[in-house]
Amino acid sequence: MSPLWRDQIHVFFAPERVDLVRVPRRLSGLKQPEQVPKTTMLCQRDTDQSISESPLHQLEQMVQDAAGAEMMITLSNHFVRYTTLPPQAEISAPDEVYAYAAFRMREIYGTRVDEWILSVSAWDPIKGAICAAINRDLLTRFEEMAVRCRIKLKGLEPYLASTFDNWKQLLDAPRTCFALVETGRICIALLASGVWQSIRNQKILHAVEDELLAALDQEAILSGYKEPVEQVYLFAPEHPGLVLPQDCGWEIVPIQTVQLPVLAHYPSAIVDQGEMKECIV
Amino acid sequence: MHRLGLKFPDTGQQVRSVDFACLFIGLFVLVAVFYQFRLTTEAINYWNVRVEHLEKQQQPKKIVKRTRSKPRKREISQEIRLEIKEANVVLRQINLPWEALFDAIEHAASQEIALLSLEPNTNNQSLRIGGEAKNMSVLLDFVEAMEREIVFVNAHLLNYKIKQDSPQRPIVFVLTASWIEVS
Fold this sequence. Notes:
The complex is a heterodimer of chains A (281) and B (183). Chain A is α/β, with parallel strands linked by helices and 281 residues long. Chain A has helices spanning 53-62, 94-109, 136-148, 159-166, 208-223; strands at residues 8-14, 17-23, 39-44, 70-75, 81-85, 116-120, 129-135, 152-158, 175-182, 185-192, 195-203, 230-235, 250-254, 276-280. In chain A, strands 8-4-1-2-3-14 form a six-stranded mixed β-sheet. Chain A has a five-stranded mixed β-sheet with strand order 11-10-9-12-13, with helices on one face. Chain A has a three-stranded antiparallel β-sheet with strand order 5-7-6. The longest helix of chain A is centred in the middle third of the chain and has 16 residues, at 94-109. Chain A is globular. Chain B has 183 residues and is α+β, with helices and mostly antiparallel strands. Chain B has three helices and four strands. In chain B, helix 2 crosses helix 3 (136-148). The A-B interface holds A 75, 94, 97-98, 117-124, 130, 132, 134, 139, 155-158, 161, 164-165, 168, 171-172, 194 and B 1-10, 12-16.
């Protein structure tokens, strides 16, 4: 089937929720594609199983009738590990870049890297890059599910990369701190003059505000530089009321979503119980 | 700032230098094509203007030619015809059988006939002879003698006049005769 005829399915895939938006495509219509409402399914995790099992099962049920469609999945940071690749002027060939990324990952995560597959952003010897990794089994499960449901799997995209690419124009500053908060996880990326300084991707064990403030302070200390009041771009759609204490040294800059709107399949705070369904595996 | 473009499975590192090389080659080709297009357009405009100019220049000439060329041709053809006519006349005069004519005239004439003029007309092959005769009988004998000559036919006396003021009373005459070509 021609890609012009395929329906496009965008999925946000997290341990506790699956958000799905299906956009019908019609070749005849040059008009704006019609967008159906987002479907959100909440999942409860069974402690005996991996965190991906419940949402995988749920997603397969959601796309049972979507044969022939194309599916792009945005992976929650729960499933992704990141590391920065500092600039190395000597590295230029793609093979060297991947060897460098594998080395950096192994340096941080040890032998667990053997079960992962890596993806490296566009390498620049002056500005470096970042590397993301997911479990190889997870990708295999998605591919198997796509075959079963006769869906074309376009790929899996980390949540951080998706949001950063969506708002990269806003985040283009001499010094950028970008915090991405979702249910149960905080991801903080720090850039200076376009060079990736650090990426922190940690669980939330206590109050979100406290954890976010602590993580920001730690990143500032590790970077070795902090303004009296540092700005942080915050995207936390599942925590609309998230604010930091006054005089904490951090000022939240909300993401301007007027010109560059939030992608429809991104998670959001659930206010209407009607659109939410619960899944227990 | 570039897109991260992180994706699983990984699509691989793009060789940016190749991308830029392709971009520059494409831009160069685009500029070259645009430059060539501009040159061609200018050339087309130049030749269009030139052709129009030439057409404008040729149109009055054509009118002049139309008005002048035919009379000129006519004049030329008339001149040529005249020249041809004159040439034919000269040729005919050259081709006159002078020797035979003179022999016949000398044979017909006697000592009492004085020939004063010979005017050949090549168009009708006639000869006009002017002269003086001693008397009328001598003149008539000369006309008869001319008639008898093989070369001449239709020998006629056109006019004659007796000179009263002369003591011998000679006769001034003009006769005409046609000659025939004897091979």
